[in-house]
Amino acid sequence: MLDRKIPFPAFALLFMVAGATDALIYLHSRDLLAVYMTGNSSHIGRHIGEGNWAGITPLAAVIAAFFTATALGAWIGMRARRWRPTVILLLTSLLMSASMPFAHSDDYPFITVLFIAAAMGTLNQVSGNESGVTFLTGMLVRTGRAFAEGNFKAGLDGLVRWSALVAGAALAIPLNNHLGRHALLAIAAMLALGAVFTAWNALVGRHRARHSS
């Protein structure tokens, strides 16, 4: 389950970022979920059923931001090759940083949610071997299957990811209480740190490849 181009500390940080972002969104934007496209899509269906056409537009915009960013992230990642994780994490960090100036301490405005949705869409293309890396439901299903097949290494990897996401969500609360809207910059810094880990990993891999050939 673990992409060898992404070192373990970076993967753990990635899931902590996902958990922290989830928690901040639930605190500051309950109607527009920048990280939960299933929920946004269900809300669109509900609005259609209720005839509430005005409620569809912002939800559709958030989904479009996520989808456009993840498609662009995949396109960039394919061309970055061994540097894919580093480039994607840096782009995600920039998008998360861009969301902060528009944010308020109480509620995140629409533009902030759009930037966060774009950031999370980009983040989920960090691995060339596994798309949607922070999608927890699918990951838990794969983890259960791994344990059923006796693949305990993959199963434990899944549990570590889940634990990191929960830890990130817990960390978001003191960050939010002490930093307010600047908690988004703390998340951006975590992403930048992950980029450093992956860049180092890529350099080590290139060095080993040269010496083996």
From TrEMBL:
UniProt key word Transmembrane helix? yes
Q: Which UniProt keywords apply?
A: Membrane, Transmembrane, Transmembrane helix
InterPro entries per UniProt:
DUF1275
Q: Which residues cross the membrane?
A: 53-76, 83-102, 183-204
- Its name, as the record gives it, is DUF1275 domain-containing protein
The opening ranks of the lineage are: Bacteria, Pseudomonadati, Pseudomonadota, Gammaproteobacteria, Oceanospirillales
